[in-house]
Specification:
By secondary structure, this protein is an alpha+beta fold. It has one domain. Helices cover 23% and strands 28% of the residues. Strands 1, 2, 3, 4, 5 and 6 form a 6-stranded antiparallel β-sheet that branches. The mean pLDDT is 93.
Length: 87
């Protein structure tokens, strides 16, 4: 089964598919999501996206179904790659 990294930014965002963490980080920095302030189920919060309006990020199949959360190393990669930004 093929898996991809799926991201949805906020409640109004659409699910976007990525092949790598690097591509995902570039996308998140383009959107100026900001630094991680905490990890939640299948995602994380930032100063710009928090509460029910957080960022979903997980490994999933072709239909964006959740297969696995990011592991500790992947979370660390996301945290170190995001740029500080406030909307």
């Amino acid at each position: 089964m093929e898996t991809w990294l799926w991201i949805r930014v906020g409640d109004c965002g659409e699910y976007e598919q990525f092949d790598s963490l690097d591509d995902a980080i570039d996308y998140l920095n383009e959107l100026r999501v900001g630094n991680v302030t905490g990890w939640v189920e299948a995602g994380f919060e930032t100063p710009n996206y928090h509460g029910q309006d957080y960022i979903s990020i997980y490994w999933g199949g072709t239909d964006a179904n959740h297969l696995a959360d990011l592991d500790d190393d992947e979370q660390e990669t996301i945290e170190s790659g995001l740029e500080e930004s406030y909307l």
